[in-house]
Amino acid sequence: MNALFLYRDDGPLARLAIRRLASPEPGPYAWLLPPLVRSTEYGLVIALTALMNADALPAAFAYLGVLAFHHYDIAYRLRDRGEPPPAWVGAVGGGWEGRSLVIALLAAVGALGLGLVVLAALLGTVWIAESAAGWIRWIRRSSR
Questions:
Q1: pTM score, two decimals?
Q2: SS (HEC) of 37-104
């Protein structure tokens, strides 16, 4: 699989759409897609929080911190270890489109502040714990 697909952090909906619509060979501007997806996802969180519940902006930035950690983890695993995170890690997060949908639903029902805190805590716990365990396993394997 092309690394650019991994950097995007696609979920099941995006993978299905890509399979149906996109060419398997990346074009010359394919490198632009991961940062565009990232800025769209982050921008959606900030915009919806600012518009729907400005008091929840600290929760939004906590959530964005967890997302940034996850995205850096993906990038450094690919760069330093040459392997992506386990597939279940992406499934837990739902991909950028799944998370964006959840954020939009939370905003629609007026639960954005609490929802962002819960998402940040749950995803942060899972992603940070798995990342630490994965890097420890890799260090142990490579030191043998």
A1: 0.89
A2: HHHHHHHHHHHHHHHHCHHHHHHHHHHHHHHHHHHHHHHHHHHHHCCCCCHHHHHHHCHHHHHHHHHH
